[in-house]
Amino acid sequence: MIEGNLLKMRTSIENDTVQYQLVLNDSKVDLNKLIGKSVKLTYKNQINCISCGKITSKSFGQGFCYSCFQTAPEAEECVLNPEKCRAHLGESRDQQWAEEHCLIPHYVYLAVASGIKVGVTRHTQIPTRWIDQGAWKAVIIAETPNRHIAGVIESFLKQYFSDKTNWRNMLKNQLAEEIDLIEEQKKAIEFLPKELQKYAAENSKATEINYPVLQYPLKPQSVTFDKELSIEGILQGIKGQYLLFDNDRVINIRRHSGYLVQIEE
Q: Are 159 and 90 in a shared domain?
């Protein structure tokens, strides 16, 4: 039995399959070893801010207390809207943080979960970002020197590609295998204005990702600790940031960042 505050699951790839770790304060749980077994998660009626650590009655922006949601650099507007990043102009909540997270190389990519989407991530977050979104295939289309330019490219390409993932179809493992990602990569680059095409990563190859799942849900039913104090059942697999339980129940771990829980087999 292990107790601690949830954070998004840590991931790596071994033997062509994603490996998941649940981090609970100082403890780490190898989740892949629990697939096929009975697992119980119990919410202890406490949420701690993932930034300052204080107890908060409500979580904002996936784990922050309201104060940190308004002031922490990790919750700044450009996290969700990269094109609005102003760190390159010397404007940010914390310029040192911005230099380490915004003023570094970023990738614009196309990923396929249940459909094709365009996205942005730091160069250090490949393939982590794709795994978190449950993508089974992805390719880089541009490399930029900072977050702002990557956001401008992504914003331009939103008129041709979605920037959202249908989480239900992703969890049902509807792969959209008919999509030729390399052809879509070429199209995306051709769509870009000349001044943005100089950032194109034309020689990038597609990456495929395999997830540890015994059985996918037919009709995913989201469960949350806001409605259920205890979630228990056979762990059928893990995809994206979701634990997949029997009876089509799924829980988004990242959405519960900061929640104090107890896990037991």
A: yes
Q: Are 205 and 158 in contact (CB under 8 A)?
A: no
107 and 22, same structural domain? no
Q: Which two tokens stand for residue 216?
A: 């996918």
If asked whether residues 161 and 179 sit together in one domain, one would say yes
The total number of structural domains in the chain stands at 2
Residue 67: how many other CB atoms lie within 10 Å:
14
Q: Are residues 204 and 251 in the same domain?
A: no
* In a domain? residue 194: yes
CA distance 78 to 118: 16
**CA distances in angstroms from 98 to 58, 146, 206, listed in the order given:** 27, 10, 29
Could you tell me which of 250, 128, 142 has the C-alpha nearest to residue 197?
142
Per-10-residue mean pLDDT of the chain, 265 residues long, equals 95 95 93 98 98 96 96 96 97 96 98 96 97 97 98 98 95 94 97 97 94 98 96 98 98 97 94
Taking the CA atoms of 216, 218, 224 and 225 in sequence, report the sign of the dihedral they define.
negative
Q: Evaluate whether residue 64 is within a structural domain.
A: no
Which residue from 238, 230, 217 is spatially nearest to 35, judged by alpha carbons?
238
Shared domain for 129 and 34, answered yes or no, is: no
What is the DSSP track for 209-240? -B--BS---SS-EE--TTT-SEEEEEEEEEET
Domain ranges, residue 103:
76-208
